Amino acid sequence: MTWVDQPMTASFDVTATRLLDRFADRLEAALADVAEVDYEGGILNVALDGGGTYVINKHAPTQQVWVSSPQSGAWHFALDAKSGAWRDTRQGQDLVALLTRELAAATGIDVVLG
């Protein structure tokens, strides 16, 4: 896999912001009855009514999107330049797939993030 490995660029900022904007819009629409979604200052918080909070934010120094999951812990995702997917830097898991799977398990709702 080809990971982005360079200093912060405007391109990373725009790409990561668009990703978080899309996630916020879709999560607010899909989870309104089962979670509180708050997106402010580039940090997306998804507080599940059943307990647990996801925190998703961009980390400029590493050009990664970081996720704190109440189900699976901390994750760091980098943009795979070849596929355009955000992949976990340790195991290569896809960000959208991980969140979709975990949120469905926690809420019973299939959220379309991609």
Automatic annotation (TrEMBL):
GO cellular component: cytoplasm
InterPro entries reported for this sequence: Frataxin/CyaY, Frataxin/CyaY_sf, Frataxin_CS
BP-aspect Gene Ontology terms: intracellular iron ion homeostasis; iron-sulfur cluster assembly
A Pfam family per the record: Frataxin_Cyay
Molecular function GO labels: 2 iron, 2 sulfur cluster binding; ferric iron binding; ferrous iron binding; ferroxidase activity; iron chaperone activity
UniProt keyword terms in alphabetical order: Iron
Similarity comment: family membership: Belongs to the frataxin family.
PANTHER family: FRATAXIN, FRATAXIN, MITOCHONDRIAL
Annotated protein name in UniProt: Iron donor protein CyaY
Organism of origin: Vineibacter terrae
Lineage: Bacteria, Pseudomonadati, Pseudomonadota, Alphaproteobacteria, Hyphomicrobiales
